[in-house]
């Protein structure tokens, strides 16, 4: 299943509109680092993101230690041979995640 990649201009717009996210993996992904009061808050947030991921059929790569959560969004289906690229799905997920916070 192939998904169109965002072009350079669209990536620039994505980063401008979502200033808590930064470019990662040489432009193939975006990343946001979050810190919560404790593990329970972090896990509660992750549970809500998990429900969003199922709704969007778009799943984050993430890392959690205690109260820290790092989320990386990329679209494997947009460039499967190279581990992924940014697509509109990443922009939509970033938007939805930001709306939780
Ligand atoms: C088959 C299934 O729809 C695909 O693997 C979906 C599911 N979730 C996904 N999540 C992410 N992050 N990238 C994808 O390309 C992707 N593709």
Automatic annotation (TrEMBL):
Organism of origin: Altererythrobacter xiamenensis
One Pfam family recorded for the sequence: Pterin_4a
Source taxon at top rank: Bacteria
Top EC class for this record: lyase
EC number: 4.2.1.96
HAMAP family the UniProt entry points to: Pterin_4_alpha
Gene3D superfamilies according to UniProt: Transcriptional coactivator/pterin dehydratase
Family: Belongs to the pterin-4-alpha-carbinolamine dehydratase family.
Presence of keyword Lyase: yes
Signal peptide (residue range): none
Designated name of the protein: Putative pterin-4-alpha-carbinolamine dehydratase
Keywords (A to Z) from UniProt: Lyase
GO biological process: tetrahydrobiopterin biosynthetic process
GO molecular function terms listed in the Swiss-Prot or TrEMBL record: 4-alpha-hydroxytetrahydrobiopterin dehydratase activity
Catalysed reactions listed for this entry: (4aS,6R)-4a-hydroxy-L-erythro-5,6,7,8-tetrahydrobiopterin = (6R)-L-erythro-6,7-dihydrobiopterin + H2O
């Amino acid at each position: 299943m192939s998904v169109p990649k965002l072009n350079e201009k669209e990536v620039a717009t994505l980063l401008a509109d979502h200033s808590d996210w930064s470019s990662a993996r040489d432009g193939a992904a975006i990343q946001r680092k979050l810190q919560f009061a404790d593990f329970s808050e972090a896990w509660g947030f992750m549970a809500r993101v998990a429900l969003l991921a199922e709704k969007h059929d778009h799943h984050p790569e993430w890392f959690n230690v205690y109260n820290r959560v790092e989320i990386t969004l990329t679209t494997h289906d947009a460039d499967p041979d190279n581990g992924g690229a940014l697509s509109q799905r990443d922009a939509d997920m970033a938007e939805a995640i930001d709306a939780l916070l």
